[in-house]
Amino acid sequence: MTKPLDKHSEDALLDPVFLEFITNQETDQPSNTQELSDVWDALDSLADDSFSELAAFDAKTAEPTHQVIRPFLTRPIGFGAIAAALLIALILPLSYLGLPTEYSIAKGQQLTVTLRDNSTVELGGNTLVTVQEGWGNRSVSIEKGNAYFSVTPNRSKPFTVHLGDSIVTVLGTTFNIYRSKKLIEVVVESGKVNISENRSSTRVVENVDLTKNQKLIIKKGQTLQVVRNVDINGEIGWRHGFIHFKQTSLETVVERMSDFYNTPIYIRNKKHRNMLLTGVFKTNDLDNFLASLALVAQIKVDNEQPGVVYLY
Description:
By secondary structure, this protein is of the alpha+beta class.
């Protein structure tokens, strides 16, 4: 049952000194800090009960528009709750309200995002993701790039990753996802994940379960490919500054490595595009990568023009 905002909390919401403390975080007043804590406790209780139907609201919006949607507030809201809503709008981050937050990582950069449930997402260069959490939701959408997930277990709130026609669902695990225009790769370091792939051409939904050291490769128009006993250190090595390729085309190698360098690389000799390469390359040393291509693959490297590299 909801714990109502008590008189002390309502007074705090309307106290001019307290509101000044909220909008000016440089003020250090212990009494105001305690009042803020009291208000948080009341708001958390309010969110858990009064707005519990908001979690189901998003699902209802996907139903036919002619269907009547019941009001999600089942009882009148007092003045204290209205003031609380205004306070939320002032000081809470958008993620707390369940609104999406977008992260765009430039080439050559990395970022670690910690979610409210202490799950973490490590984002590689040239990556674009949207994170949505709050009201019982733990969801990430990946438009492109590399992302390593360490998900805090919570059986009542599955963690989902959206990849276009594919949805990855986990309860608590560590795994990596890479997405480009041509393919999607999901590799599991620990735990178990489920991938649901909606094949639009056949209108068939395929489900695949992956466990430790297993990898799923998704390509448009091709059968889902599961690879077992993968080298997990090589698959997630980008987090530590290197990538391991095994019998991978030069075109794919260049595409993956380009995410770590702020210098475009173009393959001018089309005959080399499908050349298969095996090796370990550093992600923070462009000169070393180009020298390796020249030595191992007998490829001519032209980097005379500043800001661009051509391979012949």
